[in-house]
Specification:
157 residues, alpha+beta, 2 helices, 40% strand
């Protein structure tokens, strides 16, 4: 099966559009540590960077204006949604912005540039620790332990 047979129809939130091109970006996040009086430092790997997608689509035909308006509304709707690109398939993304353009010379035609970032998943509440509260609790427990110790009165007059 050739790549042309694997192409999917483009859509965002179920709103179809014609696909012109797309650009994807990703990689790793890193922090560079550099030190005084040293010729070398090191780069600390902080995990995978969120993937971003820049998509140029277009609408054409008798209802092109209604179709581009539906895409605009889809981009402004709350929360992440499904983006389907012909060569990439479905991705759960959040629309960071869009720009639609119509020209007098190209009546019945509009382009729309859309910027997306993969939605990922929010950290769970159970995984987060309130470090201030944890330190305070540990200090209180240590103080109570010292106060209850039989040795706590020795040496203090």
């Amino acid at each position: 099966m050739s790549w042309r047979n694997r192409l999917l129809p483009a859509s965002f939130r179920g709103v179809p559009f014609h696909f012109e091109d797309n650009e994807r970006a990703g990689g790793r996040r890193g922090v560079v540590h550099e030190y005084p009086k040293r010729n070398t430092g090191y780069a600390e790997d902080m995990g995978r960077r969120q993937r971003t997608f820049r998509v140029r689509g277009y609408t054409i035909g008798a209802n092109y204006d209604l179709q581009v308006r539906l895409l605009e509304l889809a981009c402004e709707a709350d929360g992440p949604a499904l983006l389907v690109l012909p060569t990439r398939g479905p991705s759960l993304v959040l629309c960071n912005g869009f720009a639609a353009m119509e020209t007098r010379e190209e009546g019945g035609f509009a382009t729309i540039d859309m910027d997306f970032v993969e939605a990922g998943s929010a950290p769970s509440a159970a995984a987060s620790i309130n470090t201030g509260e944890a330190v305070s609790s540990a200090a209180d427990a240590a103080s109570a332990s010292v106060a209850a110790s039989p040795m706590s009165g020795i040496g203090h007059q």
